[in-house]
Automatic annotation (TrEMBL):
Name listed for the protein in its UniProt record: TlpA family protein disulfide reductase
Main location: other
PROSITE patterns: PROKAR_LIPOPROTEIN, THIOREDOXIN_2
UniProt domain Thioredoxin: residue ranges: 315-459
Species lineage: Bacteria, Pseudomonadati, Bacteroidota, Flavobacteriia, Flavobacteriales
Length: 459
């Protein structure tokens, strides 16, 4: 009898034990007519978090997602899809890569929401003009188009019965934030597209944004458009700080504006979001890191940025440059950085698909011509993928690129690129004749500060 009671007690204990919370989601599917070899899935709010899934020969794929987010960006080739897959989801997605929008289908326990998101995206494509057409419109016509799209999306949300009410509530706010965020972009975008950089919107045009409170944690964690508005308001605060103190750099001012927030969740996320890239490019590393460290309370974030800070310290002026070996030389053979000792080296990291990189080419040619008889080597390193090798060779000829043209051995993941913590291009680096760093973030060719710097070095 005693053993029986012990057995029953054990059953009770086991049955009362809470189930472990599921901390992952499952994704699978099939993509027809794709040329891609893999799928890349990003966390929508932090694209530094990503996972890559191989696509089998028959187009099928499957994997587990563990990024602690509800929304993902699903990318296959040039196709991009917003995917709702919170922990506990089992999502199956299929489509024809040549006509994704008309063939995409979902199965699983989030099907209704993902179908809604697809329809919402279709409405945007059908009802909103391309950026140039939209933002070139006068204020009244611009707002009329936005309001029509907003109304259509609200109607779609109302008539979609299969999605939970709490999701509908969040979506209702997100649709409004999308409208407000697009409205907020109008002054700068309109000025750009109509060629009037001094354009200012009419006095009351942005009144609807005045009462948007920037520390709503729930909205911040759900809506990318709300985040956009928050970022814009913080940049306005940063500009005010710079106006009051002209010695303050804009990146430091923006970090200070974030630090004034009272909601620690929002503050931590914005500090990390800025630091992941900002700390790499700041000219005020010590001050930047000090402000981040004083205000961030997330240990995981702090460890990540501390590691970046330590690495960036090794890229300070006077330190030996990271090296590369045997990069393909367009002129033939290979080249290593050590081969260039004895000259200053101005490095341009670029790619054929990078618009801002290509925009720098005329200025770079001008600088090369001005300093052609000086002790400096102009070196361009492409981080194009191997599949674009011929495109790289062709662009060198078509654009009559000068200097030394090399191709990195593994695009973004080349050791030299990772050692310099290059997270965006174009990126420019200047080394001295001993192979030491003059600056790991040199001015662009289009920036007059570059000529000043080179002249000061008496090259």
């Amino acid at each position: 009898m005693k053993n029986l009671w012990l057995f029953i007690a054990a059953i009770v204990i086991i049955s009362c034990k809470p189930e472990k919370e599921i901390d992952y989601s499952l994704i699978s599917g099939k993509i027809e007519n794709t040329d891609a070899e893999k799928i890349t899935i990003y966390s929508q709010f932090d694209t530094s978090q990503k996972t890559e899934i191989n696509i089998a020969a028959d187009g099928t794929f499957s994997d587990t997602l563990k990024m602690n987010t509800d929304f993902y960006l699903f990318r296959e080739g040039r196709n991009m899809t917003v995917l709702y897959a919170p922990n506990g989801s089992d999502v199956n997605i299929t489509y024809n890569a040549k006509e994704k929008d008309s063939t995409i289908t979902f199965k699983g326990n989030t099907t209704a929401i993902n179908n809604y998101l697809i329809e919402k995206n279709r409405l945007s494509k059908d009802l909103i003009s391309d950026n140039k057409t939209l933002y070139s419109k006068e204020e009244a016509a611009f707002k009329e188009e936005l309001l029509a799209a907003k109304s259509a999306k609200e109607n779609l949300l109302v008539k979609t019965d299969a999605i939970p009410e709490d999701f509908k509530t969040k979506e209702e706010k997100d649709i409004n934030y999308e409208y407000l965020a697009t409205l907020n972009n109008y002054p700068s975008y309109h000025g750009y597209y109509v060629g009037n950089r001094d354009f200012k919107a009419s006095e009351n045009f942005l009144d609807e944004l005045k009462n948007v409170e920037i520390e709503n944690e729930s909205d911040f964690l759900y809506s990318t458009y709300y985040r956009s508005i928050v970022g814009s308001k913080l940049r306005d605060k940063a500009n005010d700080l710079v106006e009051k103190d002209s010695t303050l750099s804009r990146d430091i001012a923006y970090l200070k504006a974030i630090s004034e927030l009272k909601n620690q969740t929002i503050k931590n996320k914005l500090l990390l979001e800025d630091a992941l890239y900002g700390i790499t490019y700041t000219d005020n590393l010590e001050e930047y890191y000090a402000i981040f460290s004083e205000n961030s309370t997330n240990e995981k974030n702090n460890e990540k940025i501390a590691a970046d800070y330590k690495k960036l310290k090794s890229l300070a002026k006077g330190n030996p440059s990271p090296q590369f070996t045997d990069y393909e030389n367009n002129a033939g053979g290979t080249k290593s950085l050590s081969d260039l000792k004895g000259k200053y080296v101005y490095i341009d990291v670029w790619a054929t698909w990078c618009g801002p990189c290509i925009a720098e080419i005329p200025s770079l040619k001008k600088i090369e011509k001005e300093f052609h008889d000086k002790n400096i080597q102009f070196l361009s390193i492409s981080i194009d993928e191997e599949k674009d090798h011929d495109k790289w060779k062709k662009m060198i000829v078509d654009r009559e690129l000068g200097g030394m043209q090399l191709m990195a051995d593994n695009n973004w993941e080349s050791q030299f690129i990772e050692d310099y913590m290059i997270k965006g291009i174009p990126r420019f680096i200047l080394l001295d004749p001993q192979g030491n760093i003059v600056t790991a973030n040199a001015p662009r060719p289009s920036n007059e500060k570059l000529v000043t710097l080179l002249n000061e070095l008496d090259i």
